[in-house]
Amino acid sequence: MFSEYVTIGAAPGEERCAQLGSDDYEADSRVECTVFKRMLERLFPTDGTAIRYQVRKFPHDFGSYREVVICAPEGTPGFLVKATEVEHNVPVQWDAIARYELCWYATRASFIEAVRSGRMDFSEVPALLLPTTPPKVPADRSLAELLEQFPLAFTREPAPRG
User: Fold this and answer.
1) What is the Cα–Cα distance from 152 to 125, expressed in whole angstroms?
2) Phi and psi at residue 67, to the nearest 5°
3) Residue-wise pLDDT tens digits, 107-150
4) Long-range CB contacts (within 8 A, 24+) of 55-62
5) Rounded-to-integer distance, Cα 70 and Cα 72, Å
6) How does pLDDT run across 29-55, given as a tens digit for each residue?
7) How far apart are CA 104 and CA 93, in angstroms?
8) How many CA atoms lie within 13 A of 145 on its CB side?
9) How far apart are CA 83 and CA 46, in angstroms?
10) How many angstroms separate the CA atoms of 52 and 128, rounded?
11) How many CA atoms lie within 13 A of 84 on its CB side?
């Protein structure tokens, strides 16, 4: 059980994020926190320790909201040192991989909606979008290079919403 935790946030500090109470909050916050958690795991690994990152929901007067926390079982050696390191060094903007992952989730959601609404057959969904998580991409590339190597523009895109 992870009993000690420090809240890191829902997204990098200078980035826009889902707002509690908005129509798409549940889906948008789930994606943003998932991507933020993955970014923190890349930038501040906890391999070989009991320390982990989690997405947690917290109650609020206007509903529950999500945030990423760094957590560990009570008394885990080095937890406060690691949590403080992460808390004080969190990037204020998404890195290239996180931006790619946000694009991937948005593109995947468009295709899923097109299949659900009958505008597209499931067999037409590009293979890159079939898994439930984005592909692992190289860390030493810009967003433009990632989009070139792992394109999210397809010859058959779903019809626009609406």
Assistant:
1) 11
2) -150, 160
3) 999 999 999 999 999 999 999 999 999 999 999 999 999 999 99
4) 55/30, 56/5, 60/20, 62/20, 62/21
5) 7
6) 999 999 999 999 999 999 989 999 999
7) 18
8) 8
9) 10
10) 28
11) 4
Cα–Cα distances in angstroms (integers) from residue 60 to residues 12, 20, 21, 63, 111, in the given order: 21, 9, 11, 5, 33
Would you list the DSSP string of the chain?
Answer: ---EEEEEESS-TTS----TTSTTHHHHHHHHHHHHHHHHHHHS--TTSS-EEEEEEE--TTS-EEEEEEEE-TT-TTHHHHHHHHHHH--SS--HHHHHHHHHHHHHHHHHHHHHTTSS-GGGS-GGGSSSSPPP--TTS-HHHHHHHS----SSPPPPP-
- What lies within 8 Å, CB to CB, of 84 at 6+ separation is 6
Q: What is the spatial distance between Cα 104 and Cα 25, in angstroms, rounded to a whole number?
A: 18
User: 106-113 long-range CB contacts below 8 Å, 24 or more apart?
Assistant: 107/152, 109/27, 110/157, 110/158, 110/161, 111/158, 113/158, 113/161
Regarding pTM above 0.85, the answer is yes
Exposure string of 101-123, with b = 16+ CB inside 10 Å and e = fewer, is bbbbbebbbbbeebbeeeebeee
